[in-house]
Description:
Blueprint: H1 2-16, E1 19-22, E2 32-36, H2 40-53, E3 58-62, E4 67-70, E5 73-75, E6 77-78, E7 94-95, E8 98-101, E9 107-123, E10 126-143, E11 149-155, E12 160-161, H3 164-173
Parallel strand pairs: 6-7
Antiparallel strand pairs: 1-8, 2-10, 3-4, 4-9, 5-9, 7-12, 8-9, 9-10, 10-11
Amino acid sequence: MKLLTFLFACLFLSSCSVHKVIPISEDYFDPKTIETPSSFDQTWDKLIDLFAQNGLSIKVIDRSSGLIVSERSLLPSTIELDVPGKLKNPKAYAVSPKVRYATRDKPLYYELTGEWNVRLKKSDKGTVISINISNVEGKYVAYDDHSNAIVYTKHCPTCRSTGAFEENISNFIK
């Protein structure tokens, strides 16, 4: 019985520190805002075209409130390098925290999915576009000692936009 209790205690303690989450720097935030001198109607039409050209299905579209919400889709994602603010893939749309296992040198990577929320508002100077990602979920992918994939899926409230998608929007509506 003592041996069984000892084994249970060892198992419990070893499972408490399986991984360490390394948070991203505060260089990323949501929502992002873009101002354009284009009219609301011109901007709206260009955004619909952008969603279509990028294969983003639209879940909610309400022209009267200026709201466009995409269906859940894969977000090209990355992690920060050891230098805060420097991304492994600067063209990625989202950044997630690094996760390191206590027993492994390699970080655990996310595969992110989420929804883009885009809101247009008329302004004195043209149109203001607010963009953010929401309902982000991360699929952790790691490998055990025998190269078998271990997959976990969970909500990722600390994942943020890198600004690349917003930059694509800004360049497209010009």
